[in-house]
Design brief:
By secondary structure, the chain is mostly helical. The protein is built from 19 helices and two strands.
Length: 324
């Protein structure tokens, strides 16, 4: 569902809420103007906080941090310096700031903007060394109201193996694998599957909690992955309220190496889903697509995963192919 998520009408509101929270909670230290706006105008900060889905305690923690920083200009300036150190990946610089003012990491206005925003940018790697450094200083840089683990999963530049390693560190440090993505009701298991991190998804499912939408995931593969793939390659299906019909272009695309490579990735995450005892109900929607495409190989793969095909679809395709 990675692409459909970006194309959904939820995305605009989601991004707006994300950047509101980034503005207040993560981007602190980027500009002097921002400092003035948030610290000098606490009433405005209060309004922004009221617009976010955060708890009363979280709101109080952030406001208390703003008030404390308003009264201590030296720490405020050093927090700005620490933010730049983290953004530039300069561990020595960050260590110097923390040694000077150990209290900096206790504020609920976090200085590690690069760790978060870098995960939003495709093909930009995650600064694991800085991550390890901040954790070594006893600073939890993720939690129940944090985007970091979710954006990490969505970052194409972070491999499945590396993502798994970091998620394990987060769990060892006390992160609950059942947390929800702030402002958008998504869980770690679904995001890991959705963004093709099968090893990480398997780990989360084995050690965490399945979300309420877990059993709907095959529907996301069918509509949010496969159908989007064909549409983005200008080979969409004909769709009406009752039927799905392959077009000559979609059938042609299904014979290409590009399609086969894409479908292999879908089977990787579908395998993880089924191994976690996922419901097979919506796999019927994936089967419909393969049947329309006369994709015998993919139907056979579904069978090998233990899924029982409907209405002898595979046999009908085999007879058609033998008759050619």
């Amino acid at each position: 569902m990675a692409n459909s998520f970006k194309n959904s009408y939820f995305y605009i509101g989601y991004i707006r809420r994300v950047f509101l929270s980034l503005l207040l909670c993560f981007s602190f230290g980027l500009t002097a103007e921002l400092h003035s706006t948030l610290i000098e105008n606490l009433e405005k900060s209060n309004e922004i906080l009221d617009s976010l889905k955060i708890s009363k305690k979280q709101k109080e923690d952030i406001l208390n941090s703003l008030k404390a920083l308003k009264e201590n200009e030296n720490e405020l300036n050093e927090l700005n310096t620490l933010s730049l150190c983290v953004e530039n990946g300069d561990i020595k610089c960050a260590e110097k700031s923390i040694e000077k003012y150990p209290k900096l990491l206790s504020y609920k206005i976090h200085p590690y903007v690069s760790l978060l925003t870098a995960t939003l940018i495709p093909h930009v790697d995650f600064d694991e060394k800085m991550f390890d450094f901040l954790v070594s200083k006893g600073h939890r840089i993720y939690g129940d109201d944090d985007m970091l683990p979710f954006f990490l999963l969505q970052n194409e530049a972070v491999s499945d193996e590396k993502c798994l390693e970091i998620i394990k560190k987060m769990r060892d440090d006390g992160m609950d694998l059942g947390i929800k993505m702030p402002y958008f009701d998504r869980s770690l298991d679904i995001v890991a599957l959705d963004y093709y991190k099968p090893k990480t998804a398997a780990y989360i499912l084995k050690n965490g909690q399945k979300s309420q939408f877990f059993n709907d995931f095959p529907l996301q593969i069918a509509i949010g992955h496969i159908m989007v793939f064909f549409r983005e390659n200008n080979a969409g299906f004909e769709i009406n309220l009752k039927n799905l019909k392959a077009t000559p272009k979609s059938i042609e695309l299904s014979k290409s190496e590009k399609y086969k490579k894409f479908i292999d990735k879908e089977f990787e995450i579908l395998k993880v889903y089924l191994e976690a005892n996922g419901d097979e109900k919506f796999i019927a929607e994936i089967e419909k697509i393969f049947t329309e495409l006369n994709d015998k190989e993919s139907l056979e793969k579904l069978e090998k995963l233990g899924y029982k095909l409907k209405k002898d679809n595979l046999e009908n395709i085999r007879r058609q192919n033998n008759g050619k």
